[in-house]
Design brief:
Radius of gyration: 16 Å
Helix content: 10-25%
Number of strands: 9
Strand content: 35-45%
Shape: globular
Strand order of the largest sheet: 3-9-8-5-6
Distance between the termini: 19 Å
Largest sheet: 5 strands, mixed
């Protein structure tokens, strides 16, 4: 499990890459990882129990079949959309309600996981309620066995 300084570096690196991509500039970032000095006070102010998960959307489909999360934990789901069209993501029953997913970008969706259980993540078009693809979302207790 990465330490807090590593998480801060990763978050800042994702922000920088997202900014460069969003600007549409002609320069291309070539470094895969950057090191940023973060004060111990800034690290201490971050919440400790944030869980992160990533999923890619390409050709109107999720790149994974299962997303595993811990129950009762603030979570950031990084959704990288490689398509030229926007989508929406929802996790039923009301875990995430039709959150917009920008085209050709990474969108962060923040939520707190419920009690342990299995849920269905659904990829929806930007407009309408047709389900384009699904992903199984498994929320397990901290001491639970991972299926």
């Amino acid at each position: 499990m990465p330490n807090r300084a590593h998480k801060v570096r990763r978050i800042v690196a994702l922000f920088v890459v997202g900014f460069l991509v969003g600007c549409g500039g002609e320069e291309i970032a070539t470094e895969r990882e950057s090191t940023i000095d973060v004060s111990p006070a800034a690290i201490a102010s971050l919440p400790e129990d944030i869980e992160e998960a990533s999923v890619t959307v390409a050709n109107g489909m999720f790149g994974v079949d299962v997303i595993r999360l811990l129950e009762g934990v603030p979570t950031v789901l990084h959704v990288t959309n490689e398509d030229d069209r926007a989508y929406r993501l929802q996790i039923v029953e009301d875990l995430v309600t039709a959150a917009p997913i920008a085209s050709n970008a990474t969108t962060d969706i923040e939520f707190t996981t419920p009690n342990a259980g299995e849920f269905e993540g659904q990829l929806l078009p930007d407009e309408g309620d047709d389900v384009l693809d699904t992903v199984q979302v498994i929320v397990r207790s901290a001491g639970g066995v991972q299926p």
